[in-house]
Amino acid sequence: MKILVVGSGGREHTLCWKMVQSPMVTKIYCTPGNAGISSVAETIPIDPSSISELSDFGAEKRIDLTVVGPELPLILGLFDEFQKRGLKVFGASAEAARLEGSKVFAKEFMARKRIPTADFRVFDSPDAAVSFLKSKECRYPTVVKADGLAAGKGVIICQNRSEAEDAVRKMMVEKIFGASGERIIIEDCLQGREVSFLLLSDGEEFIPLASSQDYKRALDNDEGPNTGGMGSYSPSAHLSPGEHRKILDEIVEPTITGMMEDGRRFKGILYCGLMLTDKGPRVLEYNVRFGDPEAQVILPRMESDLVPLLLACAGGSLKGMDIKWSDGASVCVVMASGGYPGSFEKGKLVKGLNLIKEDDRLQVFHAGTSFNRDGDIVTSGGRVLGINALGETIEVARNRAYDCVGKICFEGMHFRKDIALDAL
C-alpha cells in the first residue's frame, strides 16, 4: 500500500521510519519532509496547510492512507476534504480537532463533561482580564493561555500580577501570537509532575500508548521559555498503575465518549498533557496528533506493526487489537538552533552525522534539516535533530543518546543536559 505522511519534523521522520518497516507498505511519500526523511520516503514540496493541493496529490497517486503529523492541516479540514474524495486519513476531523485548535473550546468541554482540569476564566478583552488579575479571586502563580495555536509557546506561567499583566498585554494588545491571542484563558497554576499520555481512537474504542515524559522548557532544571519540546523518555518514571487507571477512567473515557455524544467523534491520536497533582491527574491541554518529541521515544518501543492500528482508526475498529511494547526504555535528546525558541539563524552545516552508526538501538530523527546547494545537510528549523536511543534501562538509553549527541555539532547548537535525569 501507498502512504502519504504530512509534515516535516522529527515526529514525521519517526512515523516514516516506523511505517517503512511494515510488510504492508510499498511506498511512502512525505510532504514536505526534510533531509533525514528523504532517506526513508519520497519528499514532495507541498505545504501542509495547502489542503486542496494535498488532496489532489492523494487522489492522483491513489494513496491508501494519509497520516497527518502536525495539527494545523487537521484544524483546516484535511480529514474532511480527503473523506469527501474517498481517501482514508489517520487524524481528527476539523470539528474534533477543536480540542487543540481552541483552548477555550477544550476547557469548556472539560467543564461540561466534568473532566478534571484547573479552574479557569475566559476573557475577550484585556481590560477585563487585568481587572480579574487585580481581584482577590486570582491566585498566584497563575497561567495565561492564548486561545488558538501558538507553536507550543502560547502558555505563560506568571509568578505575580506584574508578570500576568505583561502576558495579557503581549497576547491581547501587542498580538505576539496574532489572532490566537484575541481570546485568552487565565487559570490556576497546577502543582505536581507533568506527564504525556497518548492513545489511539477509532471514535469509540481506544488503546493507550506507552507513557512518556517530556521537557518543555529550553534550559536545564526546567528554566527558560517554553518550547515545542527539548527531549523526552519512555516509560514515565512518575506514573503509577493507580494513576494510569484513573487517567483512563476519569479523563480518557469521558473525553472519547463526550466527543461522540457531542457529534464530534474523535478518530486518530489524542494527546493528553497532564499534571499529576496531590488530588489526582488533571488535564493541562489536549493535542490531536502525536507529540514531538514523544513520538520519537514511544514508536521505537512499539514492537507491533503500526500500520494496521492506523488503518483501524481511519476506517475500521480497534476492538480486539492490542500493542506489544519492548521491556526497555527510550530516551530522546533534542539538538536545537541557538536562540530557539526565539529567533535563530538557518543554514548552519551539520557535522558528525557520518560518525553515527544507526541501528536498532540508536536513531537520529531529523526535525529541522535541509540540503544546501552542495548536497550537505544544514539546519532549517529551531529544533534540528532528535537523538533517540533504546536501552535495557533509562540510564543505559540516556548514556547512549548523549554519547551520540557528543559526536554531532553545528554552529550555535543548544541542547539540555538533564533529559531523563529525574528518572534515575
Structure characteristics:
424 residues, alpha+beta, 5-stranded parallel sheet, 5-stranded antiparallel sheet, 12 helices, 27% helix, 26% strand, globular
Question: Would you kindly provide a written description of the structure presented here, covering whatever features stand out?
Answer:
The chain is of the alpha+beta class and 424 residues long. The protein is 27% helix and 26% strand. The protein is built from 12 helices and 22 strands. Strand 13 and strand 14 form a beta hairpin. The model has no long low-confidence stretch (mean pLDDT 96).
* Strand content range: 25-35%
Major β-sheet annotation: 5 strands, parallel
Which sequence of strands runs across the widest sheet? 3-2-1-4-5
Low-pLDDT segments, ≥5 res:
none
Tell me the distance between the termini.
42 Å
* Radius of gyration, taken over Cα atoms and rounded to an integer in Å: 21 Å
Separate helix tally:
12
What is the 3D shape?
globular
In helices, the fraction of residues equals 25-40%
Class by alpha and beta content: alpha+beta
Mean pLDDT: 96
Report the strand count: 22
Short description:
This protein is an alpha+beta fold. 27% of the residues lie in helices and 26% in strands. The chain contains 12 helices and 22 strands.
What topology emerges from the helices and strands here?
Layout: E1 2-7, H1 10-19, E2 27-32, E3 42-43, H2 51-60, E4 65-68, H3 72-75, H4 78-84, E5 89-90, H5 98-101, H6 103-113, E6 120-123, H7 126-134, E7 142-146, E8 155-158, H8 161-173, E9 184-188, E10 193-202, E11 206-208, E12 213-214, E13 217-219, E14 223-226, E15 231-234, H9 241-261, E16 267-277, E17 280-287, H10 294-298, H11 306-315, E18 329-336, E19 362-366, E20 369-371, E21 377-379, E22 383-391, H12 394-405
Parallel strand pairs: 1-2, 1-4, 2-3, 4-5
Antiparallel strand pairs: 6-9, 7-8, 7-9, 10-11, 10-16, 12-15, 13-14, 15-18, 16-17, 18-22, 19-22, 20-21
Helix pairs in contact: 7-8
